[in-house]
Amino acid sequence: MSQPTATDRDATVQPAAFDATVEAEPLQTVLDAAAVLVDECIVRPEPDEFRIVATDPATVGIVDATVDAAAFERYETSGARLGVDLTRLAAVVGMADGDDLVGLSLDPERRRLEVRVGDLVYALALVDPDAVRSLPDVVDFSEHFVARVQLDGGMLSRGVDAAVMVSNHVEIGVEKADGDGENGGSDAVRTLRLRAEGDTDSVDFGVDEGDCGVFEVDAGAEARSLFSLSYLSEMNRVVPSGRPVTVRLGEQETPMDLAFDVADGEGRVTFALAPRISRG
Amino acid sequence: MSQPTATDRDATVQPAAFDATVEAEPLQTVLDAAAVLVDECIVRPEPDEFRIVATDPATVGIVDATVDAAAFERYETSGARLGVDLTRLAAVVGMADGDDLVGLSLDPERRRLEVRVGDLVYALALVDPDAVRSLPDVVDFSEHFVARVQLDGGMLSRGVDAAVMVSNHVEIGVEKADGDGENGGSDAVRTLRLRAEGDTDSVDFGVDEGDCGVFEVDAGAEARSLFSLSYLSEMNRVVPSGRPVTVRLGEQETPMDLAFDVADGEGRVTFALAPRISRG
Amino acid sequence: MSQPTATDRDATVQPAAFDATVEAEPLQTVLDAAAVLVDECIVRPEPDEFRIVATDPATVGIVDATVDAAAFERYETSGARLGVDLTRLAAVVGMADGDDLVGLSLDPERRRLEVRVGDLVYALALVDPDAVRSLPDVVDFSEHFVARVQLDGGMLSRGVDAAVMVSNHVEIGVEKADGDGENGGSDAVRTLRLRAEGDTDSVDFGVDEGDCGVFEVDAGAEARSLFSLSYLSEMNRVVPSGRPVTVRLGEQETPMDLAFDVADGEGRVTFALAPRISRG
C-alpha cells in the first residue's frame, strides 16, 4: 500500500485495489448525477463510500455523489483513484435492471475497470486521472447557508420546468408570503419561491412551509439569488419525483445546493450551483 | 361592464373579468383540438361556456371547442375576449396531471392570463385579439348534412391512418353495402366508407351500421365527398380512442364535421372540414 | 393449376390462389424478421406453411421465416408466389393488435394482395417476383455445425448489445471455461462465449452450459468464428426476450445460425450469418 507520503499519482501506479458489487440502481443514480456536469471524472472508492466529486469546465456547478460502502454486497478498496469515461460506464451499468447486481473491479496492470452485469464482463479502459480536470479548491459553503427547505422532488421540478419556458435564469429565495408590512410578523407564512421573468411571460412558483418537510431559516436572514437555468434544469432531470429533495440557500449572490438521497438513504447526491451575477 | 353597443375592441380595454378553475383534462383537450388548426386564437369565456372557435389560414378547417361553465369548479366571466398564444398556454396546462385543478384568471391591466397549476403561477402575455386572424363568416352547414354516423374513435382512426399510407386525400361517404341493384332495398346494410387510392395501393375502410352507435341517413340521400388527409389526420390525432365520435356528411362536395364529447359530456369539440374539389 | 413442368413465372400468370386468416402476432414476427435483411421479398404460401426466404444484397445473411398452415384460421393456397414490398405490408399488418385477425387474399387479376384488418381492406400492389433478387443457391450448412446451444433470447441480446458498444464485429464460440490445461477434461464447464475487442474497451460475454436449455457440442470439436455486428445486432432486435433462441456454430470461419419459434411453436425464424474473415 502507498505510504502516507505518496502522492495521488503514485497511488494509481501502486497496486491499488478495488473490487465491489452493488445493485445497479444506486450506482446508476450516482453516475447520472455526475454526468450532468462532466464526461470524464475521478471515481474515489474510499473505505466508507464510493464517491464521485466533479465540476464542469466553467466551475459553475459541483456534484458530490456517494453510495455508502454499507450499501454494497461486496466492497474492497485500497488506494484506488480511477479516471473514468462516464458516458461509457453509465451505458454499461444502464444495461442492468435496477435490482440486478453490478460488479466493479480494478485490473491495475491493464488499467481497466471490469464491469460485470450478469454473464457480461465489460472491460472499461481507464483514463489517466491526471488528465481529468481536477477540482478547484472547493470552499465549504455550509456556513453561508441561511435557509434549508425540504420538498418533494416533483414539486421542485415543476417550478424549474416552468421557469425554463420563459427565461434562462431564475431567482430562488425564501420569503414571507404575506408581505413585509402589516402581517410580516413571526406568524406570517414563509414560502420557497422561484421567479423567472421572460420577455413576455413570467413564472412565479411558491411552496408554503406547510407543504415542505423541513423549513428552516435563520432569524432575520434573507435568502435570494439568481441561478442559471441551463445548469439547474439539467440537475433537475436527476432529482427523483415523489421523494424529498433539500434546497439550501444563502444570502444574496451566494451559491445554493440541492441534495437528495440515493436508494434508501444509503448514498447521497449533492449539487452546488454558483449564482449568476444579477442584472441591473 | 361594456354596453351592448361597445365594440369587441372596447371589451378588451374595459375592465373585462375572467376567473376560473377546472380540471386539467377537459381544458387540455380543448386546447389540443384548437392547436390542430392555429397557433394563436381568441378564447371567449362566455357566460355558459369556455369556448374557442378558430380556422386555419386557408380556412379549410374550423374548430369549435367548448367546456361548459358547469364543468368548472369556479367560473366568473364578464366581457373577456382573450388573444392567446395557444402553444405556450397548452404547454403550461400540459404540466398538470389530468385531474389536477388549473386556475385561469385575467389580469386586465397587465393584459396577462394567469395560469395556476399547483404552486405554480404562469403569467401568459396576451396577444392583441385584433391581431389574431378573425373567423370568416361561418356558414351553418347543419341543413346540408344528410347523414350522421356515430362510431368508436379508434375505429375511425384506423381508417384514417391507413388512408394516409397511400394518398393525401380520402373519399368519405355513406353507402348501401350490397350495391344499388338487386339488393339495394331498405334492408340492405348501410356502411360508412372511407376510400383512398394511391399510385399503387388502395385503402377501403367500411363500418357497417350495426357496428355504429347511430346511423341516420336522409331518405334517398347520397353522401360522398373528397377530403384532405393532411387536415383530417391532424384532427384524427385528438379524436379519443374507445369513445364515440360523430361524423356528419352532406351531399357531394359539401363539408363534413367530426364531433366528440370532452370529458364526461361537459364540453364538446367539433371540427368542420371543407371538401377538396374531386379530381377528374 | 400449373403443371409440374410450369416455371415459377407461369405460376404467377396462372390463376394462382391464396386466401388466409391468421392472428397478427406471428405474421408480424415473420415480416419483421424478413425486414432485417430486405425491403422486398418473395412470399411463398406453400401447402403446409407460409414462408419467406430472403438474403441481403451482399448475401451475408439469410432469413428463413415460416408460420405453419395449422396456425391459420383459414389457409388456402395454390401456386402463389408473391413479390411483396415488405415495408408497406409490415406497416399495414402492424396496425392490428397482436391477437387481431389479419386476412390476406390474392387478387390475381389486379396483382394485388388484399390485407384485411378489422373493417379495413388495404390493397397492396404486388411487385413482379422476377424483379426481386432471387436467392443464391443456398448451401445447407447443417452438417458443418458442431455446436448447438439454446439460451434465453434476452441473455443473448445483452451480449450482442454490449459488443456493439466496442466494436463492429464479434467472435462467437463454444469453449471449456476452465482452460485447456489442468482442468480441461470432460467435467470442465462449457460456455457459449462472445468476445469483442475495441480500441480501448472490450467485452467478454459467457453463458455457462448450466444456464442453457440445450448445450450440445460434437466430441473434440472447436467452434469459433468472427461475425459482423451490423448484421447480428439487427437480427438481435427481433429475437424475443424471455423465450429460448438456438445458436448453432461450426468450425472456424463457418456460418452460424440463430433460430427461434414464432408464437407458440407454430412457426419458426432462422437467420444464417456468414462469418467475417478474421483479422491477422
TrEMBL record, chains A, B, C:
Top-level division of the source organism's lineage: Archaea
Q: Quote the InterPro entries the UniProt record gives.
A: DNA_clamp_sf, Pr_cel_nuc_antig
| GO BP terms | DNA replication; regulation of DNA replication
Write the record's keywords in alphabetical order, separated by commas: DNA replication, DNA-binding
Q: Which SUPFAM superfamilies match?
A: DNA clamp
State any single GO MF term: DNA binding
Q: Which family does it belong to?
A: Belongs to the PCNA family.
Assembly state and interactors? Homotrimer. The subunits circularize to form a toroid; DNA passes through its center. Replication factor C (RFC) is required to load the toroid on the DNA.
Query: Any idea what job this protein has?
Result: Sliding clamp subunit that acts as a moving platform for DNA processing. Responsible for tethering the catalytic subunit of DNA polymerase and other proteins to DNA during high-speed replication.
Entry protein name: DNA polymerase sliding clamp
